Each structure stands twice: as C-alpha cells, then as structure tokens.
Amino acid sequence: MPATKLSKAAQDHASRVFDLDVSSLRELNQALHNLTSGSNETAWEVVNPKGSHSVAVGVDQPVSIDVRGSVGYYCAGMNDGAAITVHGSAGPGVGENMMSGSIVIKGDASQYAGATGKGGLLVIEGNASSRCGISMKGIDIVVHGNIGHMSAFMAQSGNLVVLGDAGDALGDSIYEARLFVRGKVESLGADCIAKEMRPEHIELLQGLLDRAGVTGVKPSEFKRYGSARTLYNFNIDNADAY
C-alpha cells in the first residue's frame, strides 16, 4: 500500500496545527502515528473537529494534543502516553482501551467512557453517560459530574471517582476496581457493596483528586464501593444474582 501523501498542514512542523476543514482526519492520525521517540513535535492543536470520529486514536508518544471543539465516538482510543484535552464534549467510547497518559474532557462524555482502559487518567469535567468505566482494567477515571446506569460493570481494576451521583446498577458484577462516589447512588449492581473508607483509601483518593485538578473537595465526603466477592465462582445459591 503506498504511503499516504500528507497535506501542507500535516507537513507544517512549525505550527503543529491541524485544521480539519483543510486536512483530513486520516492525515491527522497518520502524522501522529509517524511520531518517533525524541521528536521535537511535542505540542499539537486540532481545530474545527466538528464532531469527527476517532480523533487522535492510537497515539503512542508523550505529546500534548488540544482538540478545540467537540468530538464524536472513540476519541483518543488506545492512548499510550499522550496528554489529550478535548475542549468540548465527547461521543461514545472516549479513551477506550487507554494504556497510559491522560485524557481531559472539558464537557460531557457519552456512554462507555474509558471502557476496558488498562492505565492512565481520564478526567471528565462534565457528566458521563451510561456504562462509564465498563470492564476497566487499571485505568483511573475522575468524573466531576454524574454518571449513568451500569457504570463500572465488570470493572476489574483501577479507580472510578464520581463527584456527583451514580445511576442504577453501579458496579454490577465488579471484580477488584475501587469506586468512590460523593453523591447519591441510585442502586448497586449484583455483588457490589458499600465498603469502609480506610486511611489508605483516603490517601489514594486525595491523590486522584489532586491529579484531576479537583479543589475544595475532601476525600471524607465520598463513600467507597467494591466487590462482595460472591460471584467469582459459580455457586447455585447465588444463581439469581448472575
């Protein structure tokens, strides 16, 4: 397959600005994938995203990317080391399968934000829709607002911090992820229970709040939720909970 020919904007290393009214999304992602270790192209700006899908996916270098506007689905998926900020809202699947780095959404996020994420920090400064953190595997997620139903479903590891309220069936079939909710929880899912906030959890939560830029909020205002560990192995007595 011949190499993709990049536009003038893609080749303009001095500005590092991509206007998606001028250049294609393919050109943007190709330029980001072409980055190598030690590159001096460390700051990127994307303008006129206009809800484009799959913006800045698969970035594997420690660069900063500012997206000036809202994006569609799967923005910043598989991020591995970049610091990506969306100055708007994000569609479904933002940060899916993130490995490391950080993603900040200045607005709201649609469903399954941070799904299957294995590392890094996802901050949503607005609200997150349903299934936030589904099957999370080590990612840290901090939501300044509320989250929707079935969030942290089958969450294996990592931390989900919610400054607002949580919808129905929080943590359904959860494994060993830690959930911290400051507001009201509509209901807990199967095998998810309230747990004691011990000193190590206070320290952990304070660190997450600091990393997410949250001020004026105390860890003592949160409740912790996690696995009751009754569904790890099938037991006929628990059949109704599966």
TrEMBL record:
Entry-linked CDD domains: GXGXG
Pfam families: GXGXG
SUPFAM superfamilies for this protein: Alpha subunit of glutamate synthase, C-terminal domain (SSF69336)
Gene3D superfamilies: Glutamate synthase, alpha subunit, C-terminal domain
UniProt GO molecular function: oxidoreductase activity
Domain (Glutamate synthase alpha subunit C-terminal) ranges: 61-192
InterPro entries found in the cross-reference section: Glu_synth_asu_C (IPR002489), Glu_synth_asu_C_sf (IPR036485), Glu_synth_lsu_3 (IPR012061)
Protein known as: Protein GlxC
